[in-house]
Amino acid sequence: MALCVELHPVNPQPRLLAQAVEVLHAGGLLVYPTDTCYALGCIVAARESQERLRRIRQLDLQHDLSLLFSSISQLADYAKLDNLAYALVRKTMPGPYTFILPATKDVPRRLADPKKHSIGVRIPANPVCEMLLTELGEPLMSSTLQLPGASAPLTDPDEICEVLGSQVDMVLVSGVGGALCSTVVDLLQWPPRLLRQGAGDPGLLGLSVAV
């Protein structure tokens, strides 16, 4: 069974965060809270854990995983931001939004959309997740903790530990998780397109729904 630890939602214990970072740097797969739902995550270099993540979620290679960042400056190393995109990202992040942006040339081919060479990026507004990302010093490959056939993500910490404890390397829980995913916005063209309505309010940004 994976180590299942409970973190304070506002002031997470530094010792436990450091332990989670060690697991990630060793190539491990984590469950952790975000500002929307609980998520599965690993570092970009952890190919085996990415494969485990896809097996748990039953995702094929065409399903893109998002990258979570601690700051816009870190995000800019992986995604191209023109002036319009930068203004929108700065206005809404940290927050419950995932933006689809052009990937930089430094992003490995396997991480970007093969046709558009784009990636999904996010800066979550959750103290545990923010501190984890800051301590980690690099982005997390991430996917919502919604199991195959389920209509919503797992939200109960006890259930998460019971169901995922044998499939991941560490479980970080911090209260009941949200049931709404992030709002996904396509910034590959202008004006932006709303691809998925989630926890964020696209009306504040004047977004149109994708056809």
Model description:
Helix 1 packs across helix 5. The chain has one domain (about 5-210): DHBP synthase (Alpha-Beta Complex). The chain is globular, with a radius of gyration of 16 Å. A hairpin with a 4-residue loop joins strand 2 (about 30-35) and strand 3. The protein is an alpha/beta fold and about 210 residues long. The protein has six helices and eleven strands. Helix content is about 25%, strand content about 20%.
Element-level helix/strand string: EHEEHEHHEEHEHEEEE
Indicate the radius of gyration in whole angstroms: 16 Å
- N- to C-terminal distance: 44 Å
Uncertain regions spanning at least 5 consecutive residues: none
Q: Quickly name the level 1 CATH class.
A: Alpha Beta
Q: What overall geometry do the principal axes of the alpha carbons give?
A: globular
Structural class: alpha/beta
Strand content: 15-25%
Q: Please give the largest β-sheet.
A: 11 strands, mixed
Strands of the widest sheet, in order across it, are: 1-8-2-3-7-4-6-5-9-10-11
> How many domains would you count in the coordinates?
1
Summed up, the helix count is 6
Question: What oligomeric arrangement do these chains adopt?
Answer: single chain
List key phrases describing it.
eleven-stranded mixed sheet; alpha/beta; 211 residues; DHBP synthase
Sum this structure up briefly.
With 211 residues, the protein is α/β, with parallel strands linked by helices.
Set out the fold topology.
Elements: E1 3-6, H1 14-25, E2 30-33, E3 38-43, H2 47-57, E4 66-68, H3 72-75, H4 83-92, E5 97-102, E6 118-122, H5 127-136, E7 140-144, H6 157-164, E8 170-173, E9 183-186, E10 193-196, E11 208-209
Parallel strand pairs: 1-8, 2-8, 4-6, 5-9, 10-11
Antiparallel strand pairs: 2-3, 3-7, 4-7, 5-6, 9-10
